[in-house]
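Annex B.
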Amino acid sequence: MHATRDSRITAGIVALGAIALLIGGAFAGLILEGAHDLSGAAAAFDGYLLRVPRFTLWQAALSTLLSVAPALLVARALARHPAFPGRRLILQLFTLPLALPAIVAALGILALYGRAGYFAGVFAGLGGGEWPGIYGLSGILVAHVFFNLPLATRLFLESLGTIPADQWRLASQLGMSARPAFRLIEWPVLRAALPGIAGLVFMLCITSFTIVLTLGGGPAATTLEVAIYQALRFDFDPARAVVLTLLQIALTFIVVVALTRLGANAVGDANLPVAPRRYLSAGRMESVLNGGLIVLALLFVAGPMAATVVSGLEADLGRLAGEEAVRRATLTSAGLALLAALLSVTLSLALIAARRALALRRRAGSAMSLLEHAADTGAGFVLVVPPIVLGAGWFLALRSITDVFAIAPVMVVAVNAVMAMPFSIRAIRPAYDAASERHERLCLALGISGWTRLSLIDWPSLRRPLATGFAFAMALSLGDLGVIALFGSDSVQTLPYLLLARMGSYRTADAAGLALLLGLVCLMLVVVADWLGREGKS
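Thiamine transport system permease protein ThiP: predicted structure tokens.
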């Protein structure tokens, strides 16, 4: 009995140790560098250091407002019209930005609204002069709304779906119109969900790296994470990088604590219950307004994706496919993403199994032990430390020991694996707990444990959830630019890194072709993960 549980608990301890090593090593690098150069760290407190956190908070607040306010209206419009033409397709389309790499979305936005974008002539005509493009704060805001409006819409729609049918029946019997129905039935639910959803979007915006790097447009539009990257890769100012990193950690910690208190879901759910329900019939004017809202939101979200496809198809894809650099970057991306996904689901399964074993061993009514609490929330620690912060800490820790660019593969795999763990755990944990509930007594009675139990007893129930977590983790790793931006070099390049390099050298046609390739692969992986998750629930 104890052998079975001990093996799972041991695996969980190893997983927690790996997470602690990754985060602790980064912190050690930061602390040692700060202690080594105290005068430099003190000198880093200047006007620039004050301006960057201020812009980080400002753009996050604006992005949150511009994402959440329209999302509330779009969600209500979708809820009020369950028979809206193409409603299911629209909701599926709203899941795609979650899977699209940020650099691919940025390129699609530039293809639409950039200086040479498809709408450049329209904007130039409206402004009476040459269109300067969408770089700077405006570009950041558009990109953040593109990603977060669909997410917030689906989360608000999930909240509206929790309204009891009895309330709608009673409202219908009383002949209640749209305005009092919103005030008395819908708004209380939306108001309760609003702080958590707004907090989640705010968190995503203050930790946005790729969007700001590609669309920021200079020092005036720089966030903390981009400033950390610039301090290490361009200025090589470790003291400034340390101070910026500590500020970023403090900022994300405060937001994560606030999110926890608000009950926000930091992972989100791509499979929200969106089955049509018959509400009060909407009047003609309301139907027209709601339909217009839905169509505008659809065009806004679909536009950059369509632009990415069109501009990608205009590129010389045959020549790109034949380039040695592209083939090498593709193989590097695939290999690193494969290893990161495998490590992510392995660590996730170890934590899930350890948590279950500790919960079974705990007496009814007793408090959770520190180890059980760590196994339950250990993967959530990574939310406080963004990838660029982990990369910066290890960059500083290793630069005096070895060639930091030579260990790029190890850092990319390790950081991406841990950052994908919250998603993997979300996919695997319900199935593991259900399988344990069914088979725990049998395994204890027969003395089945360890690998034998996993392969013979648990595997049939875990096969699809593990594949779901694996596919999602691989998609996240394929599209990540945070760590490879610091550790990448001519010898180690991934597709996002190569895409960024082509954008930086103004080879926009090549960048568009690479974006199409990367976006299609990531979307395919997420579609597979979504399908596996749905099949596992059926």
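Residues 324-361 form the longest helix (38 residues). Confidence is low (pLDDT under 50) at residues 1-5, 266-276. Further annotation is deferred to the next reporting cycle.
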